[in-house]
Design brief:
Elements: H1 3-17, H2 21-29, H3 37-45, H4 53-57, H5 59-66, H6 94-102, E1 111-122, E2 128-139, E3 144-151, E4 161-166, E5 168-176, E6 181-192, E7 197-205, E8 214-219, E9 223-231, E10 240-247, E11 250-255, E12 262-269, E13 272-279
Parallel strand pairs: 1-9
Antiparallel strand pairs: 1-2, 2-7, 3-6, 4-7, 5-6, 8-13, 9-12, 10-11, 10-13
Length: about 280
C-alpha cells in the first residue's frame, strides 16, 4: 500500500460528502479537533500525510464527519519510515489506539494483566517466524468475555495473522495494512466475573523482509511478571544482547548472556517499555 491510497480515499470521501474543506474543518472543530484547511488540502492531494500524534488522532472524527466507515482512512496511513536504529515495539501510538477503539475498547480496562510472556521465534536470517503470547489476567468488571490485544511491527510487508492457542479464540479483528498491525479481541472460553483470573495464549504469524534487532512491550500498568524470550537459529546466534527498560523517560540497560533463547525476566514490571535488543 502506498501513500497515494490514503490521498485517493480521502479525496473521494470529501467529494462524496459534498462538503467544502472549510465546512470539513468547521465540523471537525465541533469534535474539538483542529485541522487547518491547508493540511486537509495537502492530505487529499498527496503532498503530505498525517504523521504527528494529533493528526493521526483526528482521523477517527474526520471519518465520522465524512460519513465513511470507521477505519477507512486510518487503515490507509503508513507510519513514518523508521530509521535504521529503530526497533520493534508493540504499540505504535495513535494508530493502535484508534484500532482498539474500533473494537469498542474504552478508556477503562476490563482486566488487569498479572503476567505476560512473549516468545519470539526467528528464522536463520533473523526474520520473524512466530510470536506466541501467554497472559494471566484478572477481571475488574463482571461478564468479561473478551480481552483486546494489539500486535504489529513496522517492516512487516504482509498483514499479521493471529489465532487462539490456549483458552481463547479470535473474535473481531481490525487489520491495519499500512502498518502491518492488527487489533483483535481474544474471546475467552469462559466469561470472567470480578476478581476471577484466567490464563490464555495466542500466537501471531507474519512475514517480513528484514532481520529483527529488538523487541519491546509497552506496559501501561504494573505487571507482576514480564518475560520475553527470543529463539534464534543456533547456527546463526546474535553477537551481543542487552535488556532494556524505559521508565519515566529514563532508559536502563543491562547485558544479557547470548544463549538460546535470549531471555529477560522483569518482576513487578512498572509502567513503561521493557524488552530486548541485539546485534547480528
Amino acid at each position: 500500500m502506498d501513500d497515494d491510497d490514503f490521498a485517493t480515499a480521502l479525496r473521494a470521501a470529501i467529494a462524496a460528502s459534498g462538503l467544502s474543506l472549510d465546512e470539513v474543518r468547521t465540523r471537525l472543530m465541533a469534535h474539538d479537533v483542529r485541522v487547518s484547511i491547508a493540511s486537509l488540502s495537502y492530505w487529499q492531494s498527496g503532498r503530505s500525510r498525517p504523521h504527528r500524534a494529533a493528526s493521526l488522532a483526528a482521523l477517527g472524527p474526520l471519518e465520522e464527519v465524512l460519513g465513511i466507515p470507521r477505519g477507512h482512512l486510518v487503515s490507509r496511513v503508513r507510519p513514518p519510515t523508521p530509521r535504521a536504529s529503530d526497533w520493534t515495539n508493540t504499540h505504535p501510538g495513535p494508530l493502535a489506539e484508534e484500532a482498539m477503539r474500533l473494537l469498542g475498547a474504552g478508556e477503562h480496562p476490563v482486566v488487569r494483566r498479572r503476567s505476560i510472556h512473549d516468545r519470539i521465534e526467528l528464522d536463520a536470517a533473523g526474520r520473524h517466524r512466530v510470536h506466541r503470547v501467554r497472559c494471566v489476567v484478572t477481571a475488574v468488571a463482571d461478564r468479561v468475555a473478551a480481552v483486546p490485544v494489539w500486535t504489529g511491527r513496522q517492516g512487516w510487508h504482509a498483514g499479521a495473522h493471529v489465532r487462539g492457542v490456549v483458552n481463547c479464540r479470535v473474535g473481531r479483528a481490525v487489520p491495519m495494512p499500512a502498518s502491518g498491525g492488527l487489533a483483535a479481541e481474544m474471546v475467552l472460553d469462559h466469561p470472567l466475573q470480578v476478581g476471577e483470573s484466567a490464563l490464555f495464549e495466542y500466537e501471531v504469524t507474519s512475514a517480513g523482509d528484514r532481520p529483527w534487532t529488538g523487541y519491546t512491550r509497552l506496559l501501561d500498568e504494573l505487571v507482576r511478571e514480564y518475560v520475553v524470550e527470543v529463539a534464534y537459529d543456533p547456527a546463526a546466534p546474535p553477537t551481543t544482547a542487552e535488556a532494556i527498560s524505559v521508565v519515566d523517560g529514563r532508559e536502563h540497560i543491562a547485558p544479557v548472556r547470548v544463549a538460546a533463547p535470549l531471555t529477560v525476566v522483569v518482576l513487578e514490571a512498572p509502567p513503561g517499555r521493557h524488552g530486548l535488543r541485539w546485534t547480528w
